[in-house]
Each structure stands twice: as structure tokens, then as C-alpha cells.
Amino acid sequence: MMIAYWPSLIVGAGIVYLSLFHAASLRLDVSNPDKFSHLLAYFVWTLCLTSDLWRAGVSFHRRVLWAVVFPIVFGGVIELLQAYCFPPRAGEWLDWYADFSGTVLGFVVIDVLYRLFPPSYIPHDKHA
Q1: Is residue 88 reached through a cis peptide bond, with omega within 30 degrees of 0 on the bond before it?
Q2: Hey, is 66 helix, strand or coil?
Q3: Distance CA 121, CA 103 (A)
Q4: Alpha-helical segments (H) within 1-128
Q5: Which of 19, 26, 35, 102 yields a CA-CA distance of 20 to 30 A from 76?
Q6: Residue 46 burial (10 A CB sphere; 0-12, 13-18, 19+)
Q7: How far is residue 15 CA from its own chain's centroid?
Q8: Model confidence over 86-119: pLDDT tens digits?
């Protein structure tokens, strides 16, 4: 059962590794690369989660629970762990807000795209 969600599991594991064990330093041409990397990581993770859940025929309410609520709570827990358990890492509200933003953006993008252009592997009667 979990093997069906391998893309989401890999991206989620990567987020945990980069958040807790690796001081990621991206060289991006944006004003705040740390916040951008948070937004991008959670955007990609939510794309994977939502896609996996659509493919499995999961209802909209369960997709919201697992592809929106779970990553938002997960991001908050990661920030608390950084603040209290993994010095010199620091938990920041703005990091969590970037996680939140990437999650919501990713869910809206993929959900709208799948509703407008349903992939052939998704049965049409399971969209609700």
C-alpha cells in the first residue's frame, strides 16, 4: 500500500533530511532563498501527495486532509524540532508560513489541473 505513494515518501524524506540534518545553502537569485526553498519544497511535496491521492481514487475531503492539513502540521512540527531539538538550527514562523503557502499553492494547482484535464489513469467517477 505505501509503495503506491513512493514519490511523496521520497520528497517527504528529503524535506526531513534538509530540515533537520543538513544546513541547506541554496544559491538562488531571489531576495530570500531560505523562504523560497521552503515554499518550493512544500509545493513539490504537495504536488506529489495530491497526485498520488488522486491516482488512488481518494475523495476530495481525504485529499485535503492528507495533502494540505498533514503537510501544514508537519511543517510546524519540523520548525518546533529545529527550535528545540536540533541546535544550531532555528525554528521560524516565516519558514512555517512559506511551508503553508507552498502547500496551499501546490494543492490548488494540481487539483485544478486534474479537474480540468484528468489523466487517463484516473477513473472519472472518483473525482468527487
Answers
A1: yes
A2: helix
A3: 24
A4: 6-20, 33-55, 60-64, 70-85, 93-116
A5: 26
A6: buried
A7: 9
A8: 877 788 899 999 999 999 999 999 988 988 988 7
